[in-house]
Amino acid sequence: MKMMQAVYCSAYGKPNVLEVRNVPVPEIGNNEILIKNIASSITRADALMRSGNPKFARLFLGLRKLKNPIMGTGFSGEVIKLGEHVKAFKVGDLVYGETTLNFGTNAPYVKLSEEKDIVRKLPKIIEPIEAATLCDGVLTSYNFLKSVGALKAGQEVLVIGASGALGTAAIQLGKSFGAKVTGVCSAKNEEMVRQLGADVVIVYNQDNFLDSNTKYDLIYDTIGVSSFEACKPKLKAKGRYISPVLSGSLLMDMFTTCFSQKKAKFEATGLKSKEKLNSYLEDIERLLFQGALKNKVSKTFRMEEIVEAHKLLDSGRKQGNIALIF
């Protein structure tokens, strides 16, 4: 049996629960492909899953530990083996995509289902390391702005956590949709957020957006540090507070605002249909080709540095995306 090293989560907890462990190279079925990874994503969602928070998520992830203990969901790499029934790919293809709750990409080899996983051929305009992170910040923010938040040209959107993976994508996507974009970030990241296209930047340790006179059609809390109740006075009459960070209070707010004009919304992007996510990725590839979007990877790590990578995630000081390279 051929073995490989992988980032393994042995229990819920802080970054030091992660270890590099020898595991078997996956065996593929008739409708699966095996890829040799070039890079994979390391995300805030990974950190939440590693910590087992919110705790009700363990009903889906595993009660005492992750059911799928090899970390990582985003990937890019080269197809090296095909199942007998695979038709869309050939050996040597460069691909990228997302395994969602199947995890398993923080490893040099990963198997993927042609039918179930998001697997796309890598366009020449996209570097593999950048592609490995596309299905985290960019795809999630595209879904939240376009579908969950229904952002339209001429509307105003506030992005909380504007310097992270979701935030940097949201600034650019909001501008591509024709919206006026305000970003909330630290003083250190102010210039970067302006360069991404933000019309207004609020430095959170100098000013509080809640104290301003501006009201927004959409408040996108990318890191879950605020709440619908706090943001409600800053929403326009039919405004929406949206966040990809699910919590008990957000669940309650979603229920209580069902029949209100101002609403709180959440959606698990990875649970949308494969067809819908692929259509979003086609739009994202087009924006990248047009130069209207850049996917920022600020730092890369090796497997032996995975604990340090997760400490960076937990610190809240990450800029853009970070990736694991092989």
Shape: globular
Reported for the largest beta sheet, the result is:
7 strands, mixed
Number of helices: 10
Q: What is the N-to-C succession of helices and strands?
A: EEEHHEEEEHHEHEHEEHEHEHEHE
How many beta-strand segments? 15
CATH homologous superfamily annotation of the largest domain: Medium-chain alcohol dehydrogenases, catalytic domain
Total individual domains? 2
CATH architecture of the largest domain: Alpha-Beta Complex
Mean pLDDT: 95
Class per helix and strand makeup:
alpha/beta
Query: What's the N-to-C terminus distance?
Result: 21 Å
Q: Unreliable stretches, pLDDT < 50, 5 or more residues? A: none
Indicate the CATH topology of the largest domain. Answer: Quinone Oxidoreductase, Chain A, domain 1
Q: Which band does the percent of strand residues land in?
A: 25-35%
Determine Rg (CA atoms, Å).
Answer: 19 Å
**CATH top-level class of the largest domain:** Alpha Beta
State the share of residues found in helices, binned by percent: 25-40%
What does this structure look like?
- This protein is α/β, with parallel strands linked by helices and 326 residues long.
- It folds into two domains: 3-133 and 295-325, Quinone Oxidoreductase, Chain A, domain 1 (Alpha-Beta Complex), CATH 3.90.180; 148-268, Rossmann fold, CATH 3.40.50.720.
- The chain has ten helices and 15 strands.
- The protein has helices at 44-51, 58-61, 128-131, 134-148, 165-176, 190-195, 228-231, 248-256, 274-290, 306-315; strands at 3-9, 18-24, 32-42, 74-82, 94-98, 109-113, 118-121, 156-160, 180-185, 200-203, 216-221, 235-242, 263-265, 297-301, 321-325.
- Strands 3, 4, 5, 6, 7, 14 and 15 form a seven-stranded mixed sheet that branches. Strands 10-9-8-11-12-13 form a six-stranded parallel sheet. It has a two-stranded antiparallel ribbon with strand order 1-2.
- Strand 1 and strand 2 form a beta hairpin.
- It is globular, with a radius of gyration of 19 Å.
- It starts with a strand and ends with a strand.
